[in-house]
Amino acid sequence: MPSHRQMPPGPHPVAFVGAGPGDPGLLTLNALHALQRAEVILHDRLASPAVLALANPDAQLIETGKTGFAPSTPQGDINTLIVAHARRGMRVVRLKSGDPAIFSRLDEEIAACDAAGLPWTILPGITAASAAAAALGQSLTRRDRNSALRLLTGHDVNGFAEQDWVALARPGTVAAIYMGKKTARFLQGRLLMHGADPATPVTVVENASRPGQRIVATALATLPADLDAAALGGPAITMLGLAPRKAVAALPELQKERA
């Protein structure tokens, strides 16, 4: 019987890593170290080039993207790739935009590792809601306004996602809606149907924290039309109940004056 020191090493833990919203400066140190040690990185389409540029230059990069209402890599294929590379003894990073525990099918991938007898670890990341709120100069919670924050998905595997519309329609509600660009009209209709004030502020932040960040400040009554006019092409998060602070909203105009 070989001694403990002679036993062959087990597989490296699969690291489920939060890439943050896109600005590489918002990566955690643990995430950076995992990227620098990785031999295989399976990343989603929202992982920014600036973050991927920090990875081990010898690592194999595999895009395993998912896009709402568009062709996506099947989850079963992603699970298979994770398990196959980890079983080969590779240091595998599953890189997910934002935080890996928020709307990223983390449980399914952990279940695949468990079924294969593979160890794993989770390295949290800054989620898009936090980055968007920072871009607006707003707090996600505030005394006398909202004592709760809702994180919602605009769609699920069955299409448009149904929510507790009565609760969402109440004055003072703040919710961050992920993957909500294409569901703006649905969201507007459901909220107005359940008594939401048409003047409720809604702000959509595209490319939060990235160089191409854009902020579309609107109201529930005009949300779909304003989004159509803005023609957003990048990843965006919808912030229900929040408007940009006046100083933040005026910043582009101030920059033009100084130019």
UniProtKB/TrEMBL annotation:
<comment type="pathway">
    <text>Porphyrin-containing compound metabolism; siroheme biosynthesis; precorrin-2 from uroporphyrinogen III: step 1/1.</text>
</comment>
<keyword id="KW-0808">Transferase</keyword>
<keyword id="KW-0489">Methyltransferase</keyword>
<keyword id="KW-0627">Porphyrin biosynthesis</keyword>
<keyword id="KW-0949">S-adenosyl-L-methionine</keyword>
<protein>
    <recommendedName>
        <fullName>uroporphyrinogen-III C-methyltransferase</fullName>
        <ecNumber>2.1.1.107</ecNumber>
    </recommendedName>
</protein>
<dbReference type="InterPro" id="IPR014776">
    <property type="entry name" value="4pyrrole_Mease_sub2"/>
</dbReference>
<dbReference type="GO" id="GO:0019354">
    <property type="term" value="P:siroheme biosynthetic process"/>
</dbReference>
<feature type="domain" description="Tetrapyrrole methylase">
    <location>
        <begin position="14"/>
        <end position="223"/>
    </location>
</feature>
<dbReference type="GO" id="GO:0032259">
    <property type="term" value="P:methylation"/>
</dbReference>
<dbReference type="InterPro" id="IPR014777">
    <property type="entry name" value="4pyrrole_Mease_sub1"/>
</dbReference>
<dbReference type="InterPro" id="IPR006366">
    <property type="entry name" value="CobA/CysG_C"/>
</dbReference>
<dbReference type="InterPro" id="IPR050161">
    <property type="entry name" value="Siro_Cobalamin_biosynth"/>
</dbReference>
<dbReference type="Pfam" id="PF00590">
    <property type="entry name" value="TP_methylase"/>
</dbReference>
<comment type="similarity">
    <text>Belongs to the precorrin methyltransferase family.</text>
</comment>
<dbReference type="GO" id="GO:0004851">
    <property type="term" value="F:uroporphyrin-III C-methyltransferase activity"/>
</dbReference>
<dbReference type="InterPro" id="IPR035996">
    <property type="entry name" value="4pyrrol_Methylase_sf"/>
</dbReference>
<dbReference type="InterPro" id="IPR000878">
    <property type="entry name" value="4pyrrol_Mease"/>
</dbReference>
